[in-house]
Structures are given as C-alpha cells and as structure tokens.
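QUALITY CONTROL LOG
STEP: pairwise intake check
CHECKER ROLE: data steward
CRITERIA: each record must contain a sequence immediately followed by its structure tokens, with no blank fields

ENTRY 1 OF 2
RESULT FIELD BELOW
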Amino acid sequence: MLNKIKLRNLLLATCAVFVLSACSSKSEAEYNKPALYWYNKMMKQISMGELDEADDTYTSLESEHRNSPYIPTALLILVNGHMDEEEYALANFYLDEYIKRFGLNKDIDYVRYLKIKANFMGFKYQFRNQQLLDDTIVQIENFKRQYQNSPYMPLVDTINTRIYMAKASLDNEISELYERRGKEEAARIYKERAQNSWVDLDEIEKVDVPLHRSLFE
C-alpha cells in the first residue's frame, strides 16, 4: 500500500513538472519575437475572426518593437477589423493612437476620414450622443478645410449631409420634448435651430425605433 502511495505521488510530481515545463516553454516562446512574427500572427488571428487575440498580439508587437514599420499598417488593419464588427469605440481607440503617433504620414487624410466614418457609424441611438454629433461636425469642417483635394472628400460630404439631417432631427425632437414639459423658451430655441438648418425636416424619414427603446427616447 505504501509503495502505491509513493508511486502515485511520484506520478503526480512528474506530471506537475511536465505541465510547468510546458507552460514555461510556451511563455518563453511568446516573448522576444521579431516584429514580423507578431504581425503575421495578428493577421492570422484577424482572418480567423479572433479580434480580442489580435488586440493582445498587437500589444506585444507595439511593446517589443515600438518603432517598427509594421505598426502603422497594423493599426489600420485593427481599425477596419473592429469597424467590420461594429466595435466603433475600439476602432476610435486605434485611430486616435495612429493620429497621435503618425499624424504627419501621407495617408493621414484616410485616417481622418475613417475617424469621421467610425463616429457616424457609431450612432446607435438616434436621439442620444448629441456631443458626438457636434464633435463629428467639427471634425468634418476641419477635414474639408485641411484636405480639399482628398479622394475621400465625396465620402465625407455624404456623411456630412447625413450628420446634419441627424442633428436637425435631434433638435426638432428636443424641441418637442421641452414643449411637452411646458418649457416654452427652450422649445423655441431648439425649434429655431432645426428650422434654420439647411436640411428640410419634411424630407427626413423618421427612424423606426423599437418599442422597448422608444420608451426611453
């Protein structure tokens, strides 16, 4: 009986050594790798839809090779990956990182356009995000002033039109809300904002808001 106990303990100890060795080897294998290794791994993860893992791999690339020429491309790939998954907050995070670090790159107009697009696509609720609307309008105005010959200008113009439609609709809704609450002066101010917009409110199609959300809009 004693020999069986000793044998079992020996087997357990041996297994533990193998497990620890395997973990140690795996950890060592994931450090101090060339930039191309991290970049290729990230690309493979994105192609498989593993965006969380790709985020972690980018962190390794950026941490170990901060000045790698792969960094700008990796950032844009992550931006587009997260936008495809409608994860606009994460897309904006990477766009802000790109603008902060590579604001003088020749393709910065494309990145600024993506920032505008990510904000626009991020309007999940029609009558919330008023500040985001205003911020995006400012970004569009800056883009139109700084990148007049950009090939992305027609796309920005299209977003601009839809943004102003959203803002006019929002101002009109706020006016009606204040009117229902008896706040006539506030209702008048927002009504004038909506009417003074170049957008024709009659041409704006009402958004079909689901019942469970309409209670809170």
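ENTRY 2 OF 2
RESULT FIELD BELOW
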Amino acid sequence: MPDVVSGSSVGALVGGCHLAGQLDTLEGWARGLTRLKIVSYLDLRLRNGGGLIGGNRLVAEMRRHLGSTRIEDLPCPFVATATDLLSGHEVWLQRGDLVDALRASISLPGVFPPASADGRWLVDGALVNPVPVSCCRALGAQVVIAVNLAADVPGKARRPGTNLPTAAGFDLTDLLDGRTPDGPAISPMGALAKRIFRRDYDGPSVFGVMVSALGIITDRITRSRLAGEPPDVQVAPRLGHVGLLEFDRADECIREGEAAVERAMPDIVDALAVFGGAPREPHPA
C-alpha cells in the first residue's frame, strides 16, 4: 500500500477506486465494456448543461460501487486534482465525498459539464496538473512513482488512410445512425448530435477537433510540469494508438500497463533502495 495517492482525471478514478478497495470492480467493469455499452453511458445533452455528455450514468455507476465513501476514511491520504473554471487555479480535493471528488476531476471541458463544489465550478484537473507529482511531494512522499498516460500522445488514433484524428477511436457516426458492430441498432439521436460527431466533409468532426485540441494542451502541460517537478520513476504506457473513447480495448490497455511497469521495474527497485531504505536487489538478466 502506498503512503500517498494522487491523480488527475482517470488517474484520480483509478487511485480512488484502489484505495476504496474497488479496483477489481473497476477492472471488471472496464473489461466488460463494448462499443454499445459505451454509447449507453453517453447521456447526450444537446441543449444546456455545459457539456455534450451529462455524465449522470457514469456517476450513478460510481455511486453504486463506492457509495458514500469519504476521502478522509481511505487508508492513506488521497488527492484528486481539479481546475477552477473561473480562476484557472489548481484545486486539491482531499476531503469530502469520494464520488463527488472523482466527478470533478474527470470533467473534461466541453465533454462533461463542470462540477459544482463550495461555490466553484470545477473541471478536469489534467488542464493544470495532469500528473500531480507536486501533490505527493507536498504530502511528504519520499519516492514518487508517476504514471504518465500522455507520454505516447503524438500520432494518436488516426482515421485509417488519413491524417485526421478519430478522437473516439471508432466512428460514432455509425452508432448515431443505428449501425453498431456488436449489438442491436440504436435509434438516431438527432441532427445536432450527428453534426457534432460525424464528418460530412474532408476534415475532422467538431468532437474530434475539440478532443484532439485538449489532448495537445494536456500533452504540453504534462511535459512542462514534469520538467519542473520530475518524479523519481515514471511509468509510461504506450497507448498512443488507442482512441479517447475506446474503452472496449481495456484488455489491451491493461496488458500495456503491466508491460510499462515491467519496463520501469529496475528504476523502481533502485529508487526504493536509494530513497526508501529498501535493500538493493540485482536486476534480472
């Protein structure tokens, strides 16, 4: 068990579920996702609400497993980072309802509506601190092992035969038109939804532009923050070929995560030996 856990966006979700004893549940849920199930969670909000997707179905799923767990009751200090939409300040969520904190940290601007907390509107913490090494340092961590999911962003998820980003990793137009690769047909969700997700010209969709732009911003912020606040060890899964909404490829992503840890294991052993007082072990041949 680590002494401190901190995360932004999906990192906060994984870290919070781990400390709440629900990591296996999260893994099972992710491995069971299909493209049809992904769409079932996309409660589109085409009028008001501050985001294309309401997020209520995902929050209900988190609430079903995490209940009313409070951050203070977790077995070690936990920080979910978020961004104050008005001031742009970095916000550390260290107390209160765990699901509410996770909901704020994963609120990707334009995709999910901002979360309201203490009179502030909060969005995804990755906008200001994608890999929150600083949180762990501030809470007294001697050895920081960081997982950087943006390390392999360049060239991310391109539409076959083009230089256009897919954003989702699969064609949402097929789903909106009622064509699904692994389930029954879905009724059309309206002309506006199709305009958001589909391409009727030789260029990316509105959704593709928005998500790809956010990915570029996050990548640049990650590089800058890690240059000034480097972790002792960085675990960098090679996930640049996986699209943002390709949750149906969880098996592949988990395998790559395990491989990334194996690649970083010599550095982890050395860091623990030097800073953590653990005995140094020879690296495997």
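INTAKE CHECK: passed for both entries
DESCRIPTIVE NOTE, ENTRY 2: Residues 250-275 form the longest helix (26 residues).
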